[in-house]
């Protein structure tokens, strides 16, 4: 296999059934994986990489916008993550959705 992860994933999903996706990596890739999974109605989880200064949620340095149900809020990657359901995490390019 050769190429970008998202292109390879799209190719594989076109020919293979997938029930669940696990992904970790840089945010632009996670955003594209999440979008692809949601388009194809595949559940999954992504693991965010974040700056975790304190590691216990006190400093809020790792906060990331998420949507749970109809509620938008900041989740602490260090204490509420780093793993989130696909579709929960709002990426920078999705700021207009709020």
Secondary-structure blueprint of this entry?
Blueprint: H1 5-15, E1 20-24, H2 27-39, E2 43-47, E3 63-68, E4 71-76, H3 77-80, E5 83-85
Parallel strand pairs: 1-2
Antiparallel strand pairs: 2-5, 3-4
Round the mean pLDDT to the nearest integer and report it: 90
In order across it, which strands form the biggest sheet? Answer: 1-2-5
Number of DSSP strand runs = 5
How many angstroms does the end-to-end distance come to?
38 Å
Uncertain residue ranges: none
Model description:
This protein is α+β, with helices and mostly antiparallel strands and 98 residues long. The protein has one domain (5-97). It is built from three helices and five strands. The protein has a three-stranded mixed β-sheet with strand order 1-2-5, with helices on one face. Strands 3-4 form a two-stranded antiparallel sheet. A hairpin with a 2-residue loop joins strand 3 and strand 4 (71-76). The radius of gyration is 14 Å and the shape is elongated. The model has no long low-confidence stretch (mean pLDDT 90).
